[in-house]
Structures are given as structure tokens and as C-alpha cells.
Amino acid sequence: MKATESWLNTMNGGYGAFSHSSQIIHLGQYTSELNEFGKGNPIVMVPGLAGGAGLLGPLAQRLSERCRVFSYQLRGENDCFILRHPFDMDDLVEDLAELLDKLKLEQPTLMGVSFGGIIALKFAIRYPYRVGRLIVQGVGAQYERGLIHQIAGTVLSRFPLPNDSPFVNQFFNLLFGGRKKQDALRDFVVRQVWQTDQSVMAHRFRLIEGLDLQSELHRIKAPTMILAGDRDVFVSSTSVQALVRGLPRAKYHRLPDAGHLAFVTKPELLAQRVHSFCEV
């Protein structure tokens, strides 16, 4: 199930009105929407479990002040019927590899957030010399099946679409890392999240169940930066520290007053961290 266009039109869409070019790019297994911002050294952004490339808009816009930024839609984002053909995380990694081939990017900076951070890590593990720099936010070394993840799975993949339910409202507060007043930013996030079909969300949750990258992290060769919101309840400090230990040369930054959606709520801070990391 997906939010209707009439419902989406009632939300505040102005927050996502970012200046960029967009094109359709044909990959082997699906057709993706590719967004491009700015000029400079390339950064390829991998979106999270819900919200697609649109949710990356605030950060992409700020990164584009110094970089050429690409964001794309993951397989299934614009066409839930593709789920009829089974695919897994390795296939999503191969989609990214094909995208970089199409763009003729040899060693770009790769930045993944949340579910996209897992794809970025797995790509850097499989293709260690195809990544110039690696940046992840909102991800750890392993998937943990705790209460918060059960709530996330219920709301995103099975709960009825947005209404005034306190349960749904509390879930979005958890994403933000605390109570968030009803404003343009919250409306933007809710709008973007519900544009991802619930069947696609459920499939992505299943792909990461049982995930554990700890034994493979040593294969990553690219300079890496790990970003974690200090109010992120979806990724435990234990999982983040396991990622840090597995990448001993990585730079690690905790983001103050930030939750799982730090890339949306703190785009200026993240852009500052990324620019400093990439310009060293």
C-alpha cells in the first residue's frame, strides 16, 4: 500500500523543492531516477529504507555547494511490482556498481544513510578499490532485532497509512530522536516516507534481518567516516562501536541532538563533516 496522491498533495511539499537536474537511467534490472546537484568532486548518495532519493534533498543541496552530488532510486522505489522477481542485498550492490559504470565514475565518494549505509558498506567490501571515500550514517555492523525495530517494521510495513494515530506519531518522534512539532520539516519527512510502498519497506526489512558485517569489514580499503546521532534509537551504540572497531582507521563522529534522520534534520552539520573529510 502506498499513500495516495491526493493525500500527498495535502502535505507541505515546499521543503523538498531543491534545485537539481533529474533524468531516467536504465539499469539491467530496473529503470532508476537519477538526480544530480552541483559541480566538483563526485559524491554518490545511497538512500535509506523509506523516503527514497527525495529524502536526501536537504543534505544533497548543501553538499552540492562544493561537490557534484548524485542520488538515485533503489530498485522497487518507483515500481513495487518488481518484487515479483526475487532480489537481495547483493543485487542492490550490483545495481550500484552498474550505476557507477553508467556514470563513468571510477572512485567516487560513496555516502549511504540507514539502509543505504548497509548497501554502501557491502559495496565497499565487494569492490574495495572502486570507492574513493566511504561515509555512512545511521548504520552499525549488525542488525539487532529489538523492540524499536519491531515497532519500525510494524509501522512502516503493516500499519495503516498516516492518520492521527498517537502510535504513528510516536514512531516519527523516534525517527527524529525526540518529540518533533508539526512543521514543514516533519511534513516533508512524512510525505517522503509514505511515498515508498509498504510492500517495498517490508521486503527491505527482510533483507537486513540477520545481517552481520563484522567478519567482512577488514576488506574495506577506502578512508571511511562513520556518523551517528546521539539520539538514534534504531542503531545501538554496541552496533556502532562494532563498526568502528572493524574499521580502526575510520573517523567517527557523534552528532549532537540528532536521531536516525540526522541527514534530514542536521544537513548543515553533516555537510560540514563531509566537506572536511573529503577535502583532507
Question: Would you kindly provide a written description of the structure presented here, covering whatever features stand out?
Answer:
The chain is an alpha/beta fold and 280 residues long. It has a domain at 19-145 and 212-278: Alpha/Beta hydrolase fold, catalytic domain (Rossmann fold, 3-Layer(aba) Sandwich), CATH 3.40.50. It is built from 11 helices and 8 strands. It has helices spanning 5-9, 57-63, 89-103, 115-126, 147-157, 166-176, 184-193, 198-208, 237-246, 262-265, 267-278, and strands spanning 21-26, 31-37, 41-46, 67-72, 109-113, 133-137, 224-229, 251-255. An 8-stranded mixed β-sheet has the order 1-2-4-3-5-6-7-8, sandwiched between helices. α9 (237-246) links the parallel β7 (224-229) and β8. α2 (57-63) crosses α11 and α3 (89-103) packs across α4. The chain is globular.
How would the blueprint of this fold be written?
Elements: H1 5-9, E1 21-26, E2 31-37, E3 41-46, H2 57-63, E4 67-72, H3 89-103, E5 109-113, H4 115-126, E6 133-137, H5 147-157, H6 166-176, H7 184-193, H8 198-208, E7 224-229, H9 237-246, E8 251-255, H10 262-265, H11 267-278
Parallel strand pairs: 3-4, 3-5, 5-6, 6-7, 7-8
Antiparallel strand pairs: 1-2, 2-4
Helix pairs in contact: 2-11, 3-4
In a nutshell, what does this entry contain?
The protein is α/β, with parallel strands linked by helices and 280 residues long.
Q: Output the CATH homologous superfamily of one domain.
A: Alpha/Beta hydrolase fold, catalytic domain
Largest β-sheet summary: 8 strands, mixed
Highest CATH level, the class of one domain: Alpha Beta
The helix fraction, in percent, is 25-40%
Q: Which value, in Å, is the CA radius of gyration? A: 17 Å
Question: Overall 3D geometry?
Answer: globular
Q: Please tally the helical runs, counting DSSP H or I stretches of 4 or more residues.
A: 11
SSE string, helices as H and strands as E: HEEEHEHEHEHHHHEHEHH
* CATH-scheme architecture of one domain: 3-Layer(aba) Sandwich
Are there runs of 5+ residues with pLDDT below 50, and where? 4-13
Q: Beta-strand percentage?
A: 15-25%
Indicate the CATH topology of one domain: Rossmann fold
Indicate the mean pLDDT. Answer: 87
* Order of strands in the sheet with most strands: 1-2-4-3-5-6-7-8
> What is the number of strand segments?
8
State the end-to-end distance: 45 Å
Structural class by sheet pairing and helices: alpha/beta
